[in-house]
Amino acid sequence: MSAWANYGFPDPRLLTSCLPMEGLFKALAERYLPFVSDFSINVFFMNGADTTIGDILQYDFIDTLGRINTRLNNLGYQGEPIGHLDVYIRNICYRYLNHRGGVEANWTWQDLCACAAPEGLIEPEMLAPVLLAEYTVQRYRMINLLRFPVFDSSITVDVFSGSTHNGVYHDMASSLDFAFNDNSYKGTKFFGTGIGNMPIIENYVEGIYGPDHGWAEGTYCCNFVENANVSLESALRSGPMARMNVASDELVLYLNVTAPGGDDANFDDMGFDGVSLGTNIIRPQDGILLKRTLPYIQSTPPTPVAGRFTYRGWNGRLLLTCDLAPHFLFYDNVEGE
């Protein structure tokens, strides 16, 4: 049973406000736990980087917040401890992946409010006894949506790329054949991933009308790039895996896929089973986060004409994450899955 039940959730309406609020702060502190070494908010981290879930369960957040609030009021700040909750949600939500598919890869306060409070957000200053239960339920939904932390990590990617720019070939198939077999490169790329750093995985073929590059009428050029076998290169720098008892096979790759050339009709999965346009959350196979044997000889793109390139394939921005829902003591499914 989820620890939420000890604090009156999912329906805290019959309880006094203190017990549900204590549960909200404990659950939110648990969301900070994967990143405890990156934050120094004393109200949450009573033992600094050594804080454990046991510390969180035993800590009296309401008493501590009340004492902090008294000090703030003495300094001229007017507010209640309940108002601190939204501040702490704002400060941590961006460290979690928006698996519901927002504009940004990570949660923003605006996206979180839209998903958790579609009926309209109840702000702290709006609180009255009749609204307090609704306020706590909305924050309960928000915290439960924070389940995919974005990890800082290093990955490796196998690369196969090539091109034809010689004005020799009079059909796309021959141009591609030369690029694949006679003018190509194989190697490995290294990427760092994390908040604000989403490297692009490229898998596409580009067809080019020869005269656009200075060659004779009726000739065709091309470029291609294939990335595959994305694997974890180094231990996660912030150490959340060990802190949350996450096994390496629980890691997943978040991949936001678009079609090359800005046209969805150009999409081709390039031999990657399960990859599609939009948000993909891919689980590792045999220790590889995104696997395919290189090269994949894809279908030839449409024949280009003057001033217009043609494409087949996909591009994807990636992050490393895992689903911490099974590891959190405070987790209820609020998404109807």
Q: What is the averaged pLDDT score?
A: 82
Order of helices and strands: HHHHHHEHEEEHEEE
Overall spatial form: elongated
Return Rg in Å. Answer: 26 Å
Low-confidence stretches: none
What's the topology here?
Layout (H helix, E strand, L loop, with lengths): L17 H15 L20 H6 L2 H14 L7 H12 L15 H8 L12 H17 L7 E12 L7 H11 L1 E10 L6 E10 L10 E13 L7 H4 L7 E8 L19 E5 L27 E13 L15
Antiparallel strand pairs: 1-2, 1-4, 3-4, 3-7, 5-6, 5-7
Helix pairs in contact: 1-4, 1-6, 5-6
Report on the architecture of this protein.
This protein has 337 residues and is an alpha+beta fold. It is built from eight helices and seven strands, in the order H-H-H-H-H-H-E-H-E-E-E-H-E-E-E. It has helices at residues 18-32, 53-58, 61-74, 82-93, 109-116, 129-145, 172-182, 240-243; strands spanning 153-164, 184-193, 200-209, 220-232, 251-258, 278-282, 310-322. The longest helix has 17 residues, at 129-145.
